[in-house]
Amino acid sequence: MAAQWAKTVRALADGREIRYYDSELRERSATDTRDLAPVESRSHTTLDALTGEWITHATHRQTRTFLPSTDLCPLCPSVSGRATEIPEPDYEVVVFDNRFSAFAGGPGHCDVVCFTSAHDTTFAALGLARARMVVDVWADRTADLTARDGVAQVFCFENHGEEIGVTLSHPHGQIYAYPFITPRAEKILVSADRHRRETGRDLFEDVLARERDDENRIVATNDEWLAFVPVAARWPFEVQLFPRRRVADIPDLDDSQRDGFADLYLDMLQRFAALFDESMPYIAAWNQAPATHRDAWWLHMQLFSIRRAPGKLKYLAGSESAMGAFINDTDPAAVAAQLRAAR
Amino acid sequence: MAAQWAKTVRALADGREIRYYDSELRERSATDTRDLAPVESRSHTTLDALTGEWITHATHRQTRTFLPSTDLCPLCPSVSGRATEIPEPDYEVVVFDNRFSAFAGGPGHCDVVCFTSAHDTTFAALGLARARMVVDVWADRTADLTARDGVAQVFCFENHGEEIGVTLSHPHGQIYAYPFITPRAEKILVSADRHRRETGRDLFEDVLARERDDENRIVATNDEWLAFVPVAARWPFEVQLFPRRRVADIPDLDDSQRDGFADLYLDMLQRFAALFDESMPYIAAWNQAPATHRDAWWLHMQLFSIRRAPGKLKYLAGSESAMGAFINDTDPAAVAAQLRAAR
After folding, report:
1. Crossing angle of helices A128-146/A255-274, nearest 10°?
2. Separation between Cα atoms, residue B7 and residue A334, nearest integer Å
3. Quick check: B155 contacting A, CB < 8 Å?
4. Residue A130 and residue A152: Cα distance in Å, rounded?
5. Cα–Cα distances in angstroms (integers) from residue A340 to residues A208, A220, A262, A332, in the given order
6. CB proximity B302 to A under 8 Å
7. How far off is chain A from B132, nearest CA to CA, in Å?
8. According to the annotation, is A114 in a ligand binding site?
9. Least CB-packed of A134, A153, A181, B312 within 10 Å?
10. Best B42, B47, B50 residue to mutate vs chain A (most A CBs within 10 Å)
């Protein structure tokens, strides 16, 4: 199906933008009645000379909202007498500038993406039409942010679950527009460059061919997408989703690919949720092309959990947190089999 | 003071080695009476072709001991009727092969280092003589492991606190002998090589000169060591300890440097513990030279905590865990001031 939605851009009380995405044109004229202090901007990025990585210091975030009770949720629609981040009394999907941006005052940018106005649900339960609409919203925001001066890479993601520190349970994701190429993307670009020099071939093509050929680790597929546990999975439960036809980023996905993603992604989230009789925290991370390296990239999503077994979480301790060396207690093929059997 | 200790090597019931380090020669002849199944070896390392990093899969570790009650602690000395990992009825410092090695069956190796037989204490409370002895033990084990075929880098570290997933509260650390150069070390080597090419100078010298000159971020020093919050700190509370005189690894430290380290490190741990009225989890991570790059290295320790404030932990969510881009909510100079005022 082709994208069909209307976008209305409004301002919040402190000048931040909010964008309403609606499946049909709606009047979105509610005013933010809150008395908000201007957004503070005290973040800056510093090069870690030893590792060559950029570190962002954003000290104003220490005071950000932390696990509010449901009736104080800032991501629910506003009701009479209680104004939230969304002035309207209802919404479908909204994206607003994060008040606690990691990149305040610099060329970077942080969005909050609310997937639904319903507080007590999850992405896995959104349904196909809404999930498909979220893909369009990611595409729209990515295109907008990529065009800004100083933005090097746009990262759409969802952190899900208190176990990984999510402070608001309302179904939402985030978008970071980094003023630098992220360390993961840098490493991939270096690998791809070396692979090209050494073999004359494209790294992504070779990696995907290898993953596609090992049926033991494939979880599910459709006409447009593959979902597999990578041979070098670093998380206890990890799936990567790749489009069969190469694109650089979400805006490049055509309608058929967007439909296919929504379908397979919901399937994966539902499998994750069905694995254990307890909550399954996860991180869903879009790997989009850095702005300067579109031709070298292949869009993909990493979906992974730190839950390694019922009652047990994977912690990043010395080996991972200090040295970056991941020790994974699960076997990729066994995880794929567990996920195929889940639901 | 010069190193003075005796080492006795014995075998555990399943063939693993245990090494007793004693400040004076002691008879260490107790036999491991347990009926232990042979150690399983099912780990292997896989190259993540996209990132160029080695991932270790160690599936046998899923069953490892998880938060036992104090009277079942496997790191306490054995008592009549209850045999632990240490057959002797007392010890000073012991190092034994980890039954749940991340590198079982390969060229890598995992040690467990018990700092004291006392269950209810911490490294911060060991006292100077014992801390100094632990430095010698790290040096002895590093020299032994570095000499083994296939070992690329030896990593001495301590994970401290349930908040980061420590499953045994008895004061202990670990040593990993990696069969590959860790991602952090790889990145540093790449940076150092580029710095040499671009400037003709040594990266470590330049970094250390810059850190030494910014008094705002120095926490404490002595004749041999500096402890500072790095300008690009990625953790809420992070200190790096560098020897003033360059060495490649712990075995290279002379007596004066070892004394100086024990003194300053205890001071840092005590400052960490005094910061808040609640437990301070930490990771202490020795960055030693990869075996093949001794001349390019400068030994240092990273000491950091994921506690960012009372009641609040830093979680590694999408930006850090997926993209490797660290967002730190604290200001390095402010952290240094807090640490200088602590104790």
Report:
1. 120
2. 43
3. yes
4. 29
5. 20, 7, 18, 12
6. yes
7. 22
8. no
9. B312
10. B50
Taking a contact as any Cβ pair under 8 Å apart, which residues of chain B between 162 and 181 contact chain A?
164-166, 174, 176, 178, 180
Would you call A323 and B55 a contact, using CB atoms and an 8 Å cutoff?
Answer: no
Average pLDDT over residues B25-38: 92
Nearest one of A232, A233, A235 to A313, comparing CA atoms: A235
User: Looking at the complex, does the CB of residue B230 fall below 8 Å from at least one CB of chain A?
Assistant: yes
**CA-CA-CA-CA torsion sign (A76, A81, A86, A88):** positive
For residue A334, what is the nearest residue in chain B, using CA coordinates?
A: B59
Residues B168, B74 contacting (CB under 8 angstroms): yes
pLDDT of B1 reads: 53
pLDDT tens track for B113-150:
999 999 999 999 999 999 999 999 999 999 999 999 99
Measure CB to CB from residue A184 to each of B210, B285, B324 and give the nearest one. Answer: B324
Sign of torsion over alpha carbons A313, A319, A325, A330: negative
Q: Is A170 annotated as a binding residue?
A: yes
- For A243, phi then psi, to 5°, come to -75, 140
Q: Read off the tokens for A91.
A: 């919404």
Query: With an 8 Å Cβ cutoff, is B157 touching chain A?
Result: yes
Structure tokens at B211: 């850190």
Structural contact between residues B123 and B79, judged by C-beta atoms closer than 8 angstroms: no
Cβ separation of A331 and B159 shorter than 8 Å?
A: no
Is residue A172 annotated as part of the catalytic site, yes or no? yes
Nearest CA among A281, A179, A321 for reference residue B324: A321
The nearest CA of chain A is from the CA of B3 a distance in Å of 27
* Class of residue B93 by CB neighbours under 10 A (exposed 0-12, middle 13-18, buried 19+): buried
- Helix boundaries (H) for B2-108: none
Structural domains in chain B, CATH included, are 6-24+47-178 (3.30.428.10), 183-341 (3.30.428.10)
Q: Does A13 touch chain B (CB under 8 A)?
A: no
Give the span between the Cα atoms of A111 and A140, in whole angstroms: 12
Instruction: Judge whether B54 and B39 are in contact, CB under 8 Å.
Output: no
What are the DSSP E strand ranges found in A164-209? 172-178
CB of A147 within 8 Å of any CB in chain B? no
Question: How distant, in Å, are the alpha carbons of A160, A284, A292 from that of A300?
Answer: 19, 11, 17
Residue given tokens 């000169």 in the structure block:
B209
The four Cα atoms A107, B322, B158, A164 give a dihedral, to 10 degrees, of 100
Answer whether B323 sits within 8 Å of A155, measured CB to CB: yes
Amino acid letter at B34? R
Interface pTM, i.e. ipTM: 0.94
Kindly report, residue by residue over B204-248, the tens digit of the pLDDT.
999 999 999 999 999 999 999 999 999 999 999 999 999 999 999
Secondary structure of residue B261 in the 3-state scheme: helix
CB A242 within 8 A of CB A300: yes
Mean pLDDT per 10-residue run, chain A (343 residues)?
A: 82 96 94 87 90 91 63 91 95 95 89 97 97 98 96 98 89 97 97 97 97 95 98 97 98 98 98 93 98 96 94 90 95 96 92
Please check whether residue B222 touches A, CB under 8 A. no
Return the biggest CA–CA distance within chain B.
Answer: 65
The structure tokens 């090589």 sit at B193
Contacts of B56 in chain A (CB under 8 A): 325-328
What SS3 state is found at B40? coil
End-to-end CA distance of chain B: give it in Å, rounded.
26
**How many Cβ contacts (< 8 angstroms) between chains A and B?**
236
Distance (Å) of CA B118 to CA B85, B114, B125: 14, 10, 11
C-alpha span between B339 and B66 (Å, rounded): 32
